[in-house]
TrEMBL record:
<keyword id="KW-0812">Transmembrane</keyword>
<comment type="similarity">
    <text>Belongs to the ExbB/TolQ family.</text>
</comment>
<keyword id="KW-1003">Cell membrane</keyword>
<dbReference type="GO" id="GO:0043213">
    <property type="term" value="P:bacteriocin transport"/>
</dbReference>
<comment type="subunit">
    <text>The Tol-Pal system is composed of five core proteins: the inner membrane proteins TolA, TolQ and TolR, the periplasmic protein TolB and the outer membrane protein Pal. They form a network linking the inner and outer membranes and the peptidoglycan layer.</text>
</comment>
<dbReference type="GO" id="GO:0017038">
    <property type="term" value="P:protein import"/>
</dbReference>
<feature type="domain" description="MotA/TolQ/ExbB proton channel">
    <location>
        <begin position="80"/>
        <end position="205"/>
    </location>
</feature>
<keyword id="KW-0131">Cell cycle</keyword>
<keyword id="KW-0997">Cell inner membrane</keyword>
<dbReference type="InterPro" id="IPR002898">
    <property type="entry name" value="MotA_ExbB_proton_chnl"/>
</dbReference>
<dbReference type="InterPro" id="IPR050790">
    <property type="entry name" value="ExbB/TolQ_transport"/>
</dbReference>
<comment type="function">
    <text>Part of the Tol-Pal system, which plays a role in outer membrane invagination during cell division and is important for maintaining outer membrane integrity.</text>
</comment>
<feature type="transmembrane region" description="Helical">
    <location>
        <begin position="139"/>
        <end position="159"/>
    </location>
</feature>
<feature type="transmembrane region" description="Helical">
    <location>
        <begin position="16"/>
        <end position="37"/>
    </location>
</feature>
<dbReference type="Pfam" id="PF01618">
    <property type="entry name" value="MotA_ExbB"/>
</dbReference>
<feature type="transmembrane region" description="Helical">
    <location>
        <begin position="171"/>
        <end position="192"/>
    </location>
</feature>
<keyword id="KW-0472">Membrane</keyword>
Length: 229
């Protein structure tokens, strides 16, 4: 408790600029932790829904029935969104040009690519902010430290006899800014690296599914053409 009081006291005694630096770092830390918890929950949900949809897709369920089931919901995201966009485009193009299977498959590929890009963009929301906090917070804290130490030595030069007791509070309050900078930066850097890896894995899973789904549609198209001939 005394440590907290002394730190708070040093904050109150610091210069206005150093106080602003500390408050800025505190605000960045609070926002970063809020984003960390939010992103962590979103990635967990995305991974869970990906696994469930893959199990359902590879269970042998009819594609038309699966599409109707997905299309009946309003919270379609991730792999379900890619499947929905691709199958919808495939059915529409096959109705328009029944004899041009290549055009239908190419249109399906484009639709899934656009949907995949949008889903990845959703997953990457707030990651640039975490990267910015992780890279800039130490420098913001260092700026506050340099400013505080400079003021401490300027005040020290104004007296005839300098003692450690006189200069220690000024240096201590300056070093708190560096500590707060690291406190804001370290979790942000760890979270950014961890989340980037999770986004990359989810993106690879989306890409693999899109390729496999397109192969299934291609085989189905070839089979339909063989029956017609």
């Amino acid at each position: 408790m005394s440590a907290e009081i002394s730190i708070f006291g040093l904050f109150l005694e610091a210069s206005v600029l150093v106080q602003l630096v500390m408050l800025t770092l505190l605000g960045l830390s609070v926002v970063s932790w809020a984003m960390i918890f939010q992103r962590s929950r979103i990635y967990q949900v995305a991974q869970t829904r990906l696994g469930k949809f893959e199990d359902k897709f590879w269970s042998g369920l009819d594609l038309n029935r699966l599409y109707q089931e997905v299309n009946s919901r309003s919270d379609v995201v991730g792999l379900e969104k890619i499947f929905q966009s691709g199958f919808k485009e495939f059915v529409k193009l096959r109705r328009v040009s029944q004899r041009d299977a290549g055009q239908a498959l190419e249109g399906t590929r484009r639709a899934m690519r656009v949907a995949l890009s949008r889903e990845v963009d959703k997953l990457e929301v707030h990651l640039p902010f975490l990267a910015t906090v992780g890279s800039t917070s130490p420098y913001i804290g260092l700026f506050g430290t340099v400013w505080g130490i400079m003021n401490a030595f300027i005040a020290l030069g104004a007296v005839q006899q300098a003692t450690l007791q006189m200069v220690a509070p000024g240096i201590a309050e300056a070093l708190i800014a560096t500590a707060m900078g690291l406190f804001a930066a370290i979790p942000a850097v760890i979270a950014y690296n961890r989340f980037s890896t999770r986004v990359e894995k989810l993106e690879n899973a989306y890409i693999n599914f899109a390729d496999e789904f397109l192969s299934i549609l291609q085989r189905q198209t070839v089979g339909d053409e063989a029956k017609e001939s």
